[in-house]
Design goal:
The protein has seven helices and five strands; from the N terminus they run H-H-E-H-E-H-E-H-E-H-E-H. Helix 5 (about 100-110) links the parallel strand 3 (about 90-95) and strand 4. With about 160 residues, it is an alpha/beta fold. The chain has one domain: Response regulator (Rossmann fold, 3-Layer(aba) Sandwich).
Amino acid sequence: MAKKKINTQDLVAKIEQITKSRMASEPVVPLDSFREFKKKVDPKVILVIEDDETMRSAMKRIFEAESYLVKMASDSSELSMALDDVPPDLILMDIGLPWMNGFELAQLLKEHKDLKKIPLVFVSGKTSDEDIKRAFEVGADDFIKKPFEIENLRKTVQTLLKISG
């Protein structure tokens, strides 16, 4: 029995036709749903450096509800464990930390070649003009006063994560 010669153009056209008709029958996934799925599969990492356990836990709940992975440190002594495996995509830090204050810690983080580009937000009750000015001098991307509005904190984090890519 003689084999029939395959016409490549006809084959490609038929494959395209079948593929397009099947694709057209599939529901379109909204972009927001895709983004939510991506956040759950490949979550952004937020590092919270806060000495107050209640505040740390509150921030953890806020951002885990948004599908972020939250790492926590109560002070500079716990920072090495939080930075060990996966580097954070954003850092939220208080100024009034024991052993080494937030300004000193921020300056060291911003001098580190692998950490200096990570967005840093001070979340603090120390809100004098001098404190806010110093926060930006040591490399803060934003400053949020305690007590804070949860939605304001969320929007700040979302914006900085978008900007940083």
